[in-house]
């Protein structure tokens, strides 16, 4: 099973993982690593490396909040320094991406999983107005 590391600024990673737990329970082989105020980039990198070592298997998906941010850059460094391990670093994680990653990772190899979650991230953005017009009442099924 592909291991998943989620990282981002502040408590982004542990926050989004707590939301996933409400929807799906605690996902196996998934770890959040926060980049908190006062930490150096090297502190974050060390925490990510330690978390990555606790994941089983050769494939690791590192999901970050922002492209170009410190969590993304540290993920990129880890990937570059571990050429024997299959690592993908994807920026722009949102709830749709994480749900797709957690539920679909057993169906795909790492490359396919990356493509699937990028589609989910894009498809997960929606404008309420696309679901209705002025004369219709909005009806949704119960939430997750």
List the helices and strands and how they pair.
Elements: E1 3-9, H1 12-24, E2 30-35, H2 41-54, E3 59-64, H3 70-81, E4 86-91, H4 95-104, H5 110-123
Parallel strand pairs: 1-2, 1-3, 3-4
Helix pairs in contact: 2-3, 4-5
Describe the structure.
By secondary structure, the protein is an alpha/beta fold. 44% of the residues lie in helices and 17% in strands. Strands 2-1-3-4 form a 4-stranded parallel sheet, sandwiched between helices. The longest helix is centred in the first third of the chain and has 14 residues. The chain is globular. The two termini are 24 Å apart.
Summary keywords:
single chain, 144 residues, alpha/beta
Mean pLDDT, nearest integer?
Answer: 92
Radius of gyration, in Å, reads: 16 Å
Helix content: 40-55%
The amount of beta strand, in percent, is 15-25%
Structural class: alpha/beta
Describe the main β-sheet briefly: 4 strands, parallel
State the low-pLDDT regions, or none: none
First and last CA, distance: 24 Å
Which strands sit side by side, in order, in the main sheet? 2-1-3-4
Short description:
The chain is α/β, with parallel strands linked by helices. It has helices spanning about 10-25, 40-55, 70-80, 95-105, 110-125; strands at about 5-10, 30-35, 60-65, 85-90. A 4-stranded parallel sheet has the order 2-1-3-4, sandwiched between helices.
């Amino acid at each position: 099973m592909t291991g998943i590391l989620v990282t981002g600024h502040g408590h982004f990673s542990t926050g989004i993982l707590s939301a996933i737990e409400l929807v799906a329970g605690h996902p196996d082989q998934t770890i959040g690593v926060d980049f908190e105020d006062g930490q150096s980039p090297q502190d974050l990198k060390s925490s990510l490396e330690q978390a990555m070592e606790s994941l089983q298997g050769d494939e690791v998906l590192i999901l970050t909040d922002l492209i170009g941010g410190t969590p993304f850059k540290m993920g990129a460094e880890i990937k570059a320094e571990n050429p024997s391990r299959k690592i993908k670093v994807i920026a722009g994680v949102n709830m749709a991406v994480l749900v797709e990653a957690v539920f679909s990772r057993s169906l795909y190899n790492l490359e396919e999983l990356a493509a699937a979650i990028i589609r989910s991230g894009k498809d997960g953005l929606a404008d309420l107005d696309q679901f209705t017009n002025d004369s219709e009442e909005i009806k949704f099924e119960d939430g997750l």
